[in-house]
Amino acid sequence: MTALLLLLTLALAFANGANDVSKGIATLVGSGVTSYRAAVTWGSVATFAGAITAASLTQGLVATFSGKGIVTNPTDAPAFLLAVAVGAIGWLMVATLTGMPVSTTHSLLGALVGAGLLQAGLRGVIWNALIGKVVAPLLFSPIASLVLVIVILPLMRPLLYRSSRYCVCVEKTSLATPEGIAFREAVPSVAVGEESTCSNAVARVSAIDAAHWMSSGATSFFRAVNDTPKIVALGIAAATALSLAGWHVYVLVAAAMALGSLVAGFRVTATLARKVTRVTPENGLVANLATSILVAAASRFVLPVSTTHVSTGAIVGIGAQGSGVRWKMVGEMLLAWLVTLPVSGALAAVALTALR
What we know:
The protein is mainly α. The chain has 13 helices and 5 strands.
């Protein structure tokens, strides 16, 4: 059971990567900056880096999602943690296969509550702590990201407009020999300037696109920083029993998250990139900046926010300012968020009953 718990922890990390890599890269695809494959690869690299970094930044979240402070009598018993893992994984896999962006944080929370209720009834959950430390940040985060985008997008538009005229160019420079004969330099040079100055470039990328790539990587990085300790919390007990150090679990979880992103990160990315609103490089950049700021701040103060909620709120925010929002799709996503808690909780309760 201990070995199975570690395997299920890695399965949860894989499912998290498959569903959540979209939150950082959807605007890259939706705005036409790059292809699905390139975006998913970039998001996977940033996810791995963020997951490794989490080992030294967010230890407080490990305690929260191992049940301490949420469940009345938290236990490291494999049966309890296995049930939580089954509850979270079950709903995440269903959502990912249907292309629906849901929250790993929500799924884990629902599974913890479901297992806690089965273990000790209503007294098995510390409701005040649950609402204050976990539920409130989860509810506040999408509203905060929507408002932040609505505020900063108009302020940044003049800067974005001016920046769109500039690009980073790679070109081969003509040089002269001592005899005065011009030739092409074999080594390319990099120049920054207006589009009109890059007419001879062999490759170019606009300043907006370059910033968009960086903001996308930042979102994927900070998303992994916030999510990794929640997943690691399930595997710590198993790792201890198997004589593995804590950093071993972080490395394994990071690798599983990156693999999930690469193998199965396309469906949910398509939903956020194409089905919510029309995304441009400029407003996609702003959405990623807002998401990165909020998720980084939440990780700094050990708040378990959902990157799914934050990034979706940011994307809806850019749509609400001109390009329009497909509210039917948003409604379907909200419904998926609402059923996440009860479904993952029910799956965890059933699993705990069977394991007992």
